[in-house]
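Subject: sequence -> structure tokens, single chain

Hey, anyone have a minute? Need the predicted structure for the following. Not urgent.
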Amino acid sequence: MARPKIKDVARLAGVSEKTVSNVINDYAHVSDRTRRAVRDAIEELGYKVNLAGRHLRQGRTGIIALVIPELDVPYFAELARHVIREAERRSLTVLIHQTAGDRDHELAALTGFGSSFVDGVILSPLALAADDLRDRAGAPPTVLIGELLEEGADHVAIDNEKAAREATEHLLGMGRRSILVIGGRDDAAPGTAEARTRGYRAALTEAGIAHDPAALLPVTSFRMPDGAEAVTRVLSEGVRPDALLCLNDQLALGALRALHEHGVRVPEEVAVIGFDDVEAGRYSVPTLSTVAPDKAAVARVAVALLQRRMDEAAGSTAADASSADVRSPQDLVVAHRLVLRESTEGAAGSRPAGARPAPA
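Reply:
Had a minute. Here:
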């Protein structure tokens, strides 16, 4: 039997070949009824998209790069899974590149690795400056995830400052007043840690509590040993906090271990909140309260925005790339929520009255 073609799908679904193409590419402005009819026809005929031919006709490779600092950090691993899944829905292949936070590696990603190998880039930068994002003529479309470095860049993230403020407000609402920030950075530079520290300070100011710079505990990296070392250091110095705001879950898990080794009860003596809602925090003892970004939404929005930019770069006339405001840089915020577990609430069922997830 001959391999079914797009015209066969169009004939069976009773639509044009252009409409079938729009459904395959998940473009907007196709009715749900038409979309279902096309997908039913695709399934019935066993139609397979000829990706190589399609990308060749479009002058593309069909490959996008996901550029992240470290592959073995759980947040990035979980995010990569969502990006790959979303890209597959759009018939795109994902190349994952690790930068280790090195500026040269990040700059190479901005230029598409010096070739036309990738059609677009999703980048989580650590070492880049705002100037690096300017004058990128000929470079592939790029969407930043994480903190915004340049007002003129496409960007997708949660509101990190707001999220940290909500987490700190929850600790203050528990009556905690000596709150240390593991990974805190007290400067105005752009970056995720800086934004979360600003949120912490804003909550203290709102509560009428003076900010003590010594409450910020910078770390070399955001891994479990760094969190454990920071807590061990302050305890050995005689500091006795009643809460820890850890700027990612890896730091928080390390902090939990150090507190346990020093006989400090969590949350009775020290409450602990992390960031990222990685899987390990759901199984730690105690389970970890955390700020949970909608990682699936970050991936979905970033891939959709990148494909829109790639369509524009290729001169696409697709309906979802034709609106007048699409070409201006987009700064898109996705939802987060405060997930309260045993590291702040104690045993299940002991959550204080009125405690609830932060609004998304």
